Inverse folding.
């Protein structure tokens, strides 16, 4: 794919944030786009782009059904955790298999991906699925969230990643 195709796809998401026409689904679409262009993105771009879902996970959302979420996702999530040379991933995969993980673990996984984006290579595709599915299906905005007022900030991070 061309560099222009990548920029166009990210800027469509940026425009949604700028125009205030966004939701948690938009953040999920951002993650899908990061997965699609994982080979073209630099580590620096990935860090900036992943800051958006990370910030949402840490500041804006809570699980819809804590407990049920762990049980219903453990097989899918652990199946996506195939990084054999990482003690962190091995430990997290074990906790996921035991359904002993939380939203904080998904945030930490996002940070891990940020810090190891290029080294993870093809594994980024699968690891980011856990983050994407969580944001798409399993969380809701918490009472003190400023998510709906943060579109311009999110758009700024997308734009910065391509300067």
């Amino acid at each position: 794919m061309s560099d222009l195709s990548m920029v166009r796809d990210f800027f469509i998401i940026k425009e949604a944030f700028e125009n205030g026409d966004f939701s948690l689904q938009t953040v999920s679409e951002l993650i899908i786009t990061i997965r699609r262009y994982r080979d073209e993105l630099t580590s620096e771009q990935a860090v900036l782009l992943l800051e958006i879902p990370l910030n949402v996970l840490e500041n804006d959302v809570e699980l819809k059904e804590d407990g049920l979420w762990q049980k219903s996702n453990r097989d899918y999530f652990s199946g996506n955790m195939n990084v054999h040379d990482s003690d962190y991933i091995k430990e997290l995969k074990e906790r996921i298999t035991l359904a002993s993980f939380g939203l904080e673990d998904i945030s930490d996984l996002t940070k891990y991906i940020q810090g190891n984006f290029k080294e993870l290579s093809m594994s980024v595709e699968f690891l980011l699925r856990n983050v994407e599915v969580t944001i798409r299906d399993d969380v809701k905005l918490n009472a003190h969230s400023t998510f709906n007022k943060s579109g311009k900030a999110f758009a700024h991070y997308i734009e910065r990643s391509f300067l």
About this structure: The chain has a mean pLDDT of 96. The CA atoms of residues 106 and 131 lie 6 Å apart.
